[in-house]
Amino acid sequence: MGRRLGGELLRLRDAAGKTQQQAAESINATGTKIVKMERGWVPMRDPDIRVLCEFYGLDEPTSLARLLELARLDRERRRARGWWRNRLDAGATAEYIAMEDIASRIRNWQSALIPGLFHTPEYTRALAVAEGDWDDPDEIERWVEVKQRRQERLSGERPLHLHAVIWEAALRQQIGGPEVMRAQLERLLEHAELPNVRLQVLPFRAGAHPCISGPFSILSFAEGEALDVVQSDTVTGMVWAENESESSTYSVLFDRTSRLSLAPRDAVTFIDNLRKEM
């Protein structure tokens, strides 16, 4: 949200033909602060946003109110002190969990792995061991604990609505061996019974599909002014898309792939048959 808000302020400044230094002078700040604001690195105060918008010639109350609401949501997210803070080093994963914790709905496409919110401890542990980037074995167990704790979002007073589409390859890849995978498929079947979970499988026979480029998650929020954000994985880390155009593109791709996938009832039968084979 901070990055999106900063991007909108940057576009307003460019459209007004103002420099960063001129913007900084309008709020009695340094050029460095404007850089940090436009890149979403710092929380933004409402008075600064109001002055900048006036300086940029934005006189539409609705647009200003939308920016102020984005700033409020961003400040709340930054103030959050979730349970994961003492279990994870600061970084991309902690940022994702913070977003996941306040999301109301997630649409997740997975091509190689079972979605994290469905992991068994053994599956998580097998993945961590395979990565091999751990200085202390206890770190693996902390990561297992985090994965299990995240699954609490699927129940409770404000359950997360999760729509997951999984490629057949992720179901057949024997992470940890047949016993681990059999238990993991059983966990999938258990979660598929939850009223707030929609689980689909894209079978090999579907052939080429719109999401063939890689996995991603679309996070939606209850607040009306909060647009969807998209998280995707690369070899070097997470990539975020936080503007309306990009999130809409991902939504279209997800919906098209969902239509090519097995319906939830058929997906359950498919997963159960795989489980029996292992």
What does this structure look like?
There is one protein chain. This protein is an alpha/beta fold. The chain has 2 domains: 2-79, lambda repressor-like DNA-binding domains (434 Repressor (Amino-terminal Domain)); 83-277, Endonuclease, Chain A. The chain is built from 12 helices and 6 strands. It has helices at 2-16, 20-26, 31-38, 46-55, 61-79, 92-102, 121-131, 137-150, 168-172, 178-192, 244-260, 264-277; strands spanning 105-110, 161-167, 197-202, 216-220, 229-233, 238-241. α10 runs antiparallel to α12. The longest helix has 19 residues, at 61-79. It starts with a helix and ends with a helix.
SSE layout and pairing:
Blueprint lengths: L1 H15 L3 H7 L4 H8 L7 H10 L5 H19 L12 H11 L2 E6 L10 H11 L5 H14 L10 E7 H5 L5 H15 L4 E6 L13 E5 L8 E5 L4 E4 L2 H17 L3 H14 L1
Parallel strand pairs: 1-2, 2-3
Antiparallel strand pairs: 1-4, 4-5, 5-6
Shape: elongated
- The CATH architecture of the largest domain comes to 2-Layer Sandwich
Helicity level: 40-55%
What count of helical segments does DSSP give? 12
Strand order across the biggest sheet?
3-2-1-4-5-6
Strand proportion, as a percent range, falls in 5-15%
Number of domain modules = 2
Q: How far is the N terminus from the C terminus?
A: 44 Å
What is the average per-residue confidence, as pLDDT, rounded to a whole number?
A: 87
Instruction: Output the structural class.
Output: alpha/beta
The CATH class assignment of the largest domain is Alpha Beta
Number of strands: 6
Largest sheet: 6 strands, mixed
Q: State the low-pLDDT regions, or none.
A: none
Q: What's the alpha carbon Rg, rounded to whole Å? A: 21 Å
> Which H/E pattern describes the elements?
HHHHHHEHHEHHEEEEHH
In the CATH scheme, what's the topology name of the largest domain? Endonuclease, Chain A
